[in-house]
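Input record (one chain):
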Amino acid sequence: MIYDFDKQIERRGTNSYKWDRLDKVFGNPDLLALWVADMDWETPSFIKDAIRQQLDRVPVLGYTADPDEWWPTTLQWIKDHHQWDVKREWITYIPGIVKGIGMVINAFLKDDENVIVQPPVYHPFFLTPQGNKREVVWNPLIEVWTDDEGRRTEIGAQEGHLTTYEMDFDNLEQVCDDKCRLLILANPHNPCGITWDAATLQRLAHFAKTHGLIVISDEIHCDMAIFGHKHIPFATVSEEAAEVSITFSAPTKTFNMAGVVSSWAIVPNDALRATFFLWLEASELCEAHMFAPPATIAAFKYGEPWRQEMLTYLEGNIDFVIDYCKRNLPLIHPVRPDASYLMWLDCRKLGLTQDELIALFQDKAGLALNQGVMFGKEGTGFMRMNLGCPRATLAKALDQLSQALKG
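The corresponding structure, as predicted from the sequence alone:
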């Protein structure tokens, strides 16, 4: 490998939220941080070089026009990697995906209209609507359990374990009323790492079209499909999907540059696009800061070898955690993700209360993970673990957890 993913990077003292906010969030600055969704691998040099070059060639940090190659480079990446031929007029910059959710809510929803989410799911999907005084309607995913041979079993079966989730369309039909206007989709899913199949997305698109729903598809993890899985952009699965969709994405998760906000929205439908883009333009929310375009261009022009090596290393990390738990922590079941570096740990067979589970990981093992209940009550008994780090860090974390359980 050209790049060194075993290299230990010291991030404490850099104003890293993941490492320098441990005391404030967890009450212990010495925990091993495996929570916030950025990676502890060094941001690729070609991205940092592009930012330095931008500083060197711009003598005045004034108002800056977008470089001509920004969007053509982005659109070519999307076409090459996801076979989606996005037209230039469909895409615009947005200052972050969570912010984009709030913008869609305020651009399209009346005060009494509701938002559907599918827990367990990334917590801003419901916190952002609630913060904008909209009611959240819950459409929980269905757990899929299999035995060691991959045969489907009853949920909670002693011989089985959680493998993935499915959408519950029967429940969706029940909870969706005429007040529901928006559904927020995680594609790939966070925290479970599911790459949704085309049939599921087509069915969701048909439901949305026939029930007057807009679908926000958060696809920020789209370039991190692993183990042979393939990301399918929601808007591409049918004409209905294209008509109801607002897709959000960015290079920031893939290339570990979350601090350089470089997100975009893609809206194929003319009417939705006119409303949303005009709303963005009126408040100048579609104007990028001067470092977003060069960082994105560098990522997409020079980043493919780094991305491929990163994904290979990540697959090794996932296999390592699964094997370790099978040998040493058999009551903790890691759900193998189809995409991204986040792993959903099913800890329910430990038989602990939620408080006891948190105490085990945080107080006894010295680890900072995201509690499953952050992602909705369906996450009770789970923890989300960030595997975007050197393998030695994971080994240390799992050894600490093993010792804590023995104690």
